[in-house]
Specification:
This protein is an alpha/beta fold. The chain is built from six helices and seven strands. The chain is 34% helix and 16% strand.
Length: 212
């Protein structure tokens, strides 16, 4: 799989943001980094300010979103990637903040949302989907079938609000952590990224929702 320079149209990037309880060295992000970099993507694993400062509690959403926007711009500038050719996403809160950044106007090629925290565990009425209607770009959701933050049925229902093409992939038997399934997830993510890059480079239209 080769995405770098596909179709002679330039490089592609991937920004990865960690979940609330982890940093950029989280095992799942490392696995995606290795796989995507091996496929030719310029990859950057970012850190949020509270982690750099040694704090446990996340910053305010506006700070987190602003950080994502700055890190995406930094990846584009340092990696020689056009901003609209940078995919953004990550695990749980990190992916959610990337989606909010895109909804606020940040350019991106697509979103990679691993273990998207649709709602707090046990609180399905507190949905975190108010910005979904502004996601007019390809989105990949990878989630465990035993994820307490989002059941498969809940995700299937909620992603219908996303105007862009959506791909859902459920990891059978996995919970929110997707522990010991890191390589499997990385393979799913990288295959999707390469397919998106090749389709975009070749001028092909993206397909609609696909459930795996």
């Amino acid at each position: 799989m080769v995405a770098k320079g596909a179709g002679g149209s330039g490089r592609w990037g991937l920004l990865l943001a960690p979940g609330a309880g982890a940093g950029s060295d989280q095992a799942g992000l490392l696995a995606i980094d290795r796989a995507a970099a091996g496929a030719g993507f310029v990859v950057k694993r970012m850190e949020f300010p509270y982690r750099r400062a040694g704090r446990r509690g996340p910053d305010r959403p506006d700070v987190l979103v602003s950080t994502v926007i700055g890190e995406a711009a930094s990846l584009a500038a340092s990696g020689g990637v056009r901003p609209e050719r940078v995919f953004a996403g990550g695990r749980s809160m990190g992916g959610r903040m990337c989606s909010m950044a895109v909804a606020s106007g940040m350019p991106a090629a697509g979103l990679v949302l691993v273990s998207y925290p649709l709602h707090p565990p046990g609180r399905p009425e507190r949905l975190r989907t108010e910005h979904f209607s502004r996601l007019r770009l390809p989105c990949l959701f990878v989630s465990g079938t035993r994820d307490a933050f989002a059941t498969p049925r809940e995700l299937e229902q909620c992603v219908s609000a996303v105007p862009g093409p959506v791909t859902l992939h459920f990891v059978e038997g996995a919970d929110h952590s997707l522990r010991r399934r890191e390589e499997e997830v990385a393979d799913v993510v990288t295959r999707w990224l390469v397919a998106q890059a090749v389709a975009r480079s070749g001028g092909a239209k993206h397909r609609g929702e696909e459930k795996a």
